[in-house]
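Course assignment 3, question 2. Fill in each field.
Student: A.L.
Task: Predict the tertiary structure for the chain below.
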Amino acid sequence: MGRLVGLDYFFSQEALTEEKADASEIRRARGLASDDDGDGGGAKDLQRIIARRMQRQFDGRILRRTAGSLNWLKKPLITLPPYEETAVVVKPTPREMEIISELADRVKER
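Answer field:
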């Protein structure tokens, strides 16, 4: 994302070095995980730390808007029509039915 919006940091040698080191640390954490550990040896926690570090590079550069965002006059930025849900019946193709049947058979065997 940082490269897409043109942030200089994400084109730097420092960013490339950190990215390689991060990937290596994540692989190492996953490798240290035991089967009964369940959390990938702390890999998920490590990924969160890395993501937060990268998010700091975006501070003050990216604005987040939602459907409920207001302008300076406290009026909606965009007016959307009310949410509407429509149920539609779709007939699966023969190939899709084969896949569904195979998956159902596997579930029945378990």
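Instructor remarks: The chain has a mean pLDDT of 88. DSSP finds three helices and no strands in the chain.
Grade: pending
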